[in-house]
Amino acid sequence: MLIFSIETSCDETSAAVVSDGCVLSNVVSSQIGIHAEYGGVVPELAAREHLKNLMPVSRKAFAEAGIEPCDVNLVAATRGPGLPNALMVGFMAGQTAAFALGVPFMGIHHHEAHLYSAWIKGSPPRLDFARIRPSVCLIVSGGHTLLVHVSGEMKHRVLGSTVDDAAGECFDKVAKLIGLPYPGGPELDKLARDGNPERFRFPRPMLNDDSDDFSFSGLKTSVRYFIRDNQEVLDDGRALRDLCAGVQAAIVDVLVGKTVRAARKLGVDCISASGGVVSNSALRRELTESCRRKGIELHLSEGAFCTDNAGMIGILAGRKCGVDPRPTPTDAEILPGWELSEV
């Protein structure tokens, strides 16, 4: 089965071609330069860029895969969650393509695709669903932080989520307070690599809470007050790196601690982690070390599949089509607030 898939949930325009669980092409056009001037994603600008970029990105995806649109057997697109205007561009383009080609259409949940993206491996990248083990999955991005228990293929239960700011949002907002360029999370990570995380210690919200939920707004507020009372830190290169390291350590400690504890509590010996924040070097390092010490198998999303991409959308669509071939109606609407627990 050949699948053409589209992802436009936020500020990346992506198109991919997937064949029987193997990603033949996965093209992503980033809008970082467009939104940098505003210090964050502007939804209307994102939608306009998707409209401009979708056709060139799609043509490139077909060219790299070496197939023609008429060869496609299924079209898939992200249905939600995400920015409404951005979602609408890709979702309606997918519906239109499916109608024009006379093939089924499938709307995919963005987080469910991330859920399995940590298992996409190899060259060319592919996902063998038979290899997936019962696990706890951490999905962590700019807009969401989720812990999910995956008991089997297409069987998952949300354990907890953020009650306020997501981890990626906290990274970006703290970076903005410090004066780092957008997107701030990667810039903060770079500075933190040469910093001392013990010099400035910040709270670890809900780390010792019995629930599987997260909270990062208090940490962000703590950093704001620290900067207000210690303005000189921003003008001292060494102190600034230590500040970044301290903030990053607090966020990573919470993410790693609660994820590993959830796995132990459920009696599973496998953890996966996916989403844009999984690109963070400290999170990858600390999660790897913690799982090694406790004898837990770990699967981390590879670089191309950490951020939003159509490859993971196409892979999940193909598997869903095999398990439940009922297509999404071509007159269906986007679901910007679609919860993973509703899938």
How would you describe the overall organization of this protein?
This protein has 343 residues and is α/β, with parallel strands linked by helices. It has 2 domains: 2-125 and 308-342, ATPase, nucleotide binding domain (Nucleotidyltransferase, domain 5), CATH 3.30.420; 133-301, Nucleotidyltransferase, domain 5, CATH 3.30.420.40. 44% of the residues lie in helices and 19% in strands. The protein has 11 helices and 10 strands. It has helices at 32-36, 43-65, 84-101, 110-117, 167-178, 184-192, 217-229, 237-266, 281-294, 303-306, 310-323; strands at residues 2-7, 12-19, 22-30, 74-80, 105-109, 135-140, 145-152, 155-161, 270-274, 297-300. The chain has a 5-stranded mixed beta sheet, with helices on both faces. The chain has a 5-stranded mixed beta sheet with strand order 8-7-6-9-10, sandwiched between helices. The mean pLDDT is 95.
Radius of gyration: 20 Å
Q: How many strands, what sense, and barrel or not for the largest sheet?
A: 5 strands, mixed
Question: So how many helices?
Answer: 11
How many strand segments? 10
Instruction: Assign the CATH topology of the largest domain.
Output: Nucleotidyltransferase, domain 5
User: Structural class, judged by helices and strands?
Assistant: alpha/beta
* Beta-strand residue fraction: 15-25%
Q: What strand line-up does the widest sheet have?
A: 3-2-1-4-5
